[in-house]
Amino acid sequence: MNAEILAVGTELLLGNILNTNARYLSERLPEAGINVYYQSVCGDNPQRLKETLSLALSRSDMVITTGGLGPTYDDLTKETVAEALGLRLVLHEPSLRLIEQYMASLGREMTPIQRKQAMQPEGATVFRNDWGTAPACAVEARGKVVILLPGPPREMEPLFEHCVLPWLAKFSEGVLLSHTVHIFGVGEAEVEERLSHLLRDSVNPTVAPYAKQGEVQLRVSAKAGTREAAEALIAPAIEAVRAELGDHVYGIDVGSLQAAVVALLRERGLKLATAESCTAGLLSKRITEIPGASEVFECGVTSYANRIKHELLGVSEQTLREFGAVSEPVACQMAEGVRRLAGADIGVGITGLAGPGGGSTEKPVGLVYVALSTAGGTEAKRLMLARVNPDRENIRYLASSNALDMVRRALMKQN
């Protein structure tokens, strides 16, 4: 079957929130053997929603909507779908009782308007919502399938995972499986050149590159009758990528560079501490975004002022006078100082010029030093990060990424 994802909500059109539901569903549906051919977004306007739904039904076997299932006047997805398919809305008693129980658990009385959420298209398969009040449902009519899901991702994702995905199994004609290869330290052009045969000649699996900020990802996808068969097709392609790119591959389906680093730290039982100047805590932020980071992250020091570098981190005043704050010796002493301060196994120091002003011929904007200190010694890396994009935030992000990669490589050397 081919499917279309229709996200409903004016807030999506206005850019107030990101349409993460479409991304999630686009990743999960192929695993059920359902191809996603279109994505649409429509505001909370009944006429435009009716027109968008009509177009979706005309070109897709299945339409999956997100949003517009709430109790308010502008939540009209169910009504529009029922009308388009020529179905009545009827009261679904089990859903009504669950909504009553949910409201009671909050110490609130159910209002008449909330009864609307228990109304479902006649003949629909209703999926119980244990994560909110609006139940989901699936309707099969006129040779089409329409699945209605709530908008909040905290409700939509578990509902889809636990209820809708098993229901979709009856439509599956195979499995489309994908894995993401995460690459750091080589650009997209070099990746494409070194893997040109794989990117050009692969049919099943396919290998497609995606450029991300400061890194490259390869999506390796295969279609087969079972998940196991698809995995067997994908494995040789991933091994070919690893053989060509070596330790530039930092993981498969790991999510992010910081997630890979936190996982390695936890695996080895080691602690990390950071001292940042130009990145102003961005490295610490990225690390602590990962669940479980508290087990491996000791502290982060943001030390813009030379006085703080000296008094808190122990950077020598003579070093600061002789080499300046943006220098390799200062980065090294920052890394050593924060490791000592925290009693950590690994210390990272970052100092540089993120701009847009303040640079010179000798030390231009984009010059960054990253140092890593362990019991075995201290190493540093000189980076010029403004050559492609001199934007301040880009420089800061790339500096933090390079720091993460240095930590990753140091951890990989340890048994």
UniProtKB/TrEMBL annotation:
It comes from the Bacteria. Residues 4-171 form the MoaB/Mog domain. SMART domains: MoCF_biosynth. Gene3D superfamilies: 3.30.70.2860, CinA-like, MoaB/Mog-like domain. InterPro entries: CinA, CinA-like_C, CinA_C, CinA_KH, Competence-induced_CinA, MoaB/Mog-like_dom_sf, MoaB/Mog_dom. Belongs to the CinA family. This is Putative competence-damage inducible protein.
